[in-house]
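re: ur question from earlier - yeah i can do the single chain one, its not a big deal. heres the input i used so u can compare w yours
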Amino acid sequence: LAILITLAFCLFLGMDWRIGLALGGAISPVTKFDRKNYFYPDLPKGYQISQYDQPLVTGGKLRNIRITRVHLEEDTATLSHEGQGSGAAASLVDFNRAGVPLMELVTEPDFRSADEVADFARELQLILRYLGVSDANMEKGQMRIEANVSLNMGTKVELKNINSFKAVHDAVLFELKRQEEALRAGEKIRQETRGWNEAKQQTVAQRSKEEAHDYRYFPEPDLPPFETKIFDIERLRAELPELPAQKRERFMNEYAPSGNQIELLIGDKELASYFEEAASELMELDEGIFKVHTSAILNYLTTDIRGLMNNAGIDFSELKINPEHLAHLIVLIARGKITSRQAKDVLAKMFATGADPEDIVAQENIGISSDTAEIEAVIMAVIAENETAVNDYRKGKTASMQFLIGKAMGKLKGRARPDMLTDLFRRMLG
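and the output i got, formated as tokens:
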């Protein structure tokens, strides 16, 4: 069984040339609007302003999926049904978004799985955000997905207005299975529009689907054609920002993050920008530390700093810790000036004040003690106070060593390296 899946992505935004250029498409020299004639409750005037034979963008590719076209049209009203399918008790019509311009991107039938559909949608969302043309937030209705699915390379079923990546994945997966079972049972697939019922995890019939000729397209008389050659397309192409695929490749070459780390960075522009500034500062401070400890920057960003930000309810624009100071903190740890435990306390002070960690360490007298006599005195006190743990260690219970080290670290307020404490304990316990 061959699989045919085409997609249409609807986004509430004014058309931006950069979308077509970023996808490698061609800007049409002349583009026009048309009337797409049909009557349905979500479009009661009987036609929709759209683009038919002369769309703004043609061609292009994303993740080996060919782009057919990118065009503009007006959005319809929103329908909500009390019940499903033809047996619905009632349908409510919300006209608030009707007439708002949207962009529709249509692909060729190059998809072979539900996973490919969801991955493509996520990458397109990233591109739109990198271009700055839309947040493409599906939960807010800024991006919707419509998947045309056919198992027999002929009759297609349109899955309409899906508003999450998981939903489109599950809807396509269900529809493939539904069509396969129908074909094996000798049934014919009807050309229709179906919706996704999240609660029941199944697609449901909504209405029969027209063919293109049924829409009786003709040029929109109130909107004349316009020529795009008046714009400097090559200049616009040169001004495109770095796109997700380019950043992904560059980060892999420059910072060699793991697979999960790279996608975390690429998926958040602010996080990626902050990380890169901190990494550049670390490179300038100490190339050797940069090669070994670059990942520590990302670890602090995604765990400790992210936790502090979440608790305070702030984002990167309000973060007092600047990238340079985070790099300085990594250097202090790597050079053995402070322990990782002390670093957490320093980081908390950096978060509250925005101060440089080197200044905090100096002012608070934080650091690793080099006074061996002081450390040995603390160890002797811990041994005297914890006879049971000492005896357990001497009987072979090595876990007791970590207990003793923790006690000593507490007395020293973190001013000792764990490996140094381990060596001294072992020597003093014979």
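The first strand starts at residue 4 and ends at 11. not sure if urs matches, ping me
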